[in-house]
TrEMBL record:
Organism whose genome encodes this protein: Roseobacter litoralis (strain ATCC 49566 / DSM 6996 / JCM 21268 / NBRC 15278 / OCh 149)
The protein's required cofactors: pyridoxal 5'-phosphate
Keyword Transferase: yes
Protein name: aspartate transaminase
GO MF terms held by the record: L-aspartate:2-oxoglutarate aminotransferase activity; pyridoxal phosphate binding
EC number: 2.6.1.1
Length: 396
């Protein structure tokens, strides 16, 4: 039977750049010990007190349908957190709780794009972005960035596409590059959104993972609160990836319509998950810093390991749980190097090309294994790159 173009067109049937990851998983299934530096999942699990709260509230009976836009308690808690972090007045009416950031990204585009509208996004991008925009019926238009700018977007690269676009999706701190958008970048983007009457969808799921400088939410810039939908999540900040709890922050009427969409799609998020999320948020900044600390530490380890050599370029980045490495000195594509490293040393990384053309010749390393394993894997990676680069020089 024929399926809809909407669903068959989400990825176009391609692998979407996950081949190296899938090969690593096959090797693991065959019993090979692979060091996996691929997906963005903590090496710690959700904290026991959060799970105890989940258990307590579920046993207490919060297992029926929860309020579709989210419980008042969680919406209030998220609103207070956003207001405290950004200075923008935010109430529960600006908050929709969603089953994770991914569902929020999809719903946000459903809310602002009609079928056939152009939705902009920035390359390198989180792997699901183009499919999410297509799934919502929009036409994705990618905007490249430049390795020499450490992948900080240039507003002049976005501008030519803005007049015809309905929305622009940005992600800071960024997956896969780790770049935190500067105030100048965000102010330029805000001016463009206002001048061209464009919605901004701001994916801020890594907002607690900033190693240098500060995260600025563009919703806080003048004139932006009325045209910005912020995507947030418990996944990265509280090591709750499996709980599927995120949110959209936006203007009250947008949230009302998004609640209507939720009524007809997800019908909300389980109450015991929301209670546990509320509890986790109530633990405050110290808890969030504890969850982020291993990545901060491993980034510093990587800076030491890659210092004083010019074979592997560590892209100067300020946040998130990934490193972007420039492998062009080896003469290999990111994909070729990733396969080579997996086959030679059983270390799995993501090819930069999986995240768009701008990251060609790069690899993304997730900082998601124990410090000693991580440091050993990076040293092995560096030695391997040096070997390939020496072989290349000898052949020339
Ligand atoms: N945005 C970005 C940039 C991500 O990296 C991820 C997850 N890796 C998500 C959104 C979605 O996260 P979740 O659905 O777990 O909240």
């Amino acid at each position: 039977m024929q399926l809809s173009e909407r669903i068959t067109g989400i990825t176009g049937g391609g692998s979407d750049g996950w081949d190296v990851f899938l090969k690593a998983r096959r090797m693991i299934a065959q019993g090979v010990a692979v060091t996996e530096l691929t997906i963005g999942e903590h090496d710690i699990r959700t904290a026991a007190p959060v799970l105890q709260e989940m258990h307590r509230t579920a046993l207490g009976g919060h297992t029926g349908y929860a309020a579709v836009p989210g419980t008042d308690a969680l919406r209030d808690r998220v609103a207070a957190r956003v207001a405290a972090r950004t200075g923008v007045a935010t109430t529960r009416d600006n908050v929709l709780i969603t089953p994770g950031g991914q569902a929020a990204l999809f719903a946000a585009h459903m809310a602002v794009c009609d079928p056939g509208d152009i939705a902009l996004y920035i390359d390198p991008y989180y792997a699901t972005y183009p499919g999410t925009l297509r799934g919502a019926g929009a036409i994705p238009q990618v905007i490249g960035t430049h390795a020499e700018d450490a992948f900080q977007p240039r507003v002049e690269d976005i501008a030519p596409f803005a007049a015809k676009a309905r929305s622009l999706l940005i992600n800071t701190p960024n997956n896969p590059t780790g770049v935190v958008y500067s105030r100048a970048t965000l102010e330029g983007i805000a001016s463009l959104c206002i001048a061209e009457d464009m919605w901004l969808i701001s994916d801020e799921v890594y907002d607690t993972q900033v190693w240098e400088g500060a995260h600025l939410s563009p919703r806080a810039l003048p004139g932006m609160a009325e045209r910005t939908l912020v995507v947030g999540s418990m996944s990265k900040s509280h090591a709750m990836t499996g709980s599927r709890c995120g949110w959209i922050i936006g203007p009250q009427d947008a949230i009302a319509h998004l609640t209507n969409l939720a009524t007809h799609t997800t019908y909300g998020v389980p109450g015991f998950i929301q209670d546990a999320s509320c509890f986790a948020l109530a633990q405050g900044d110290a808890f969030e810093e504890e969850v982020a600390a291993p990545f901060r530490r491993r980034r510093a380890l990587a800076q030491d390991i890659f210092a004083g050599q010019n074979i592997v370029g560590l892209v100067p980045a300020q946040g998130a749980m990934y490193l972007m490495l420039d492998m062009r000195a080896t003469g290999m594509t990111g994909e070729a190097f990733a396969y080579d490293l997996l086959e030679s040393h059983h270390i799995a990384v993501m090819p930069g090309e999986s995240f768009g053309a701008s990251a060609t010749g790069h690899i993304r390393v997730a900082m998601t294994v124990a410090d000693d394993v991580f440091a050993h894997a990076l040293r092995t990676l560096l030695d391997h790159a040096a070997l390939r680069s020496a072989e290349r020089a000898a052949a020339q």
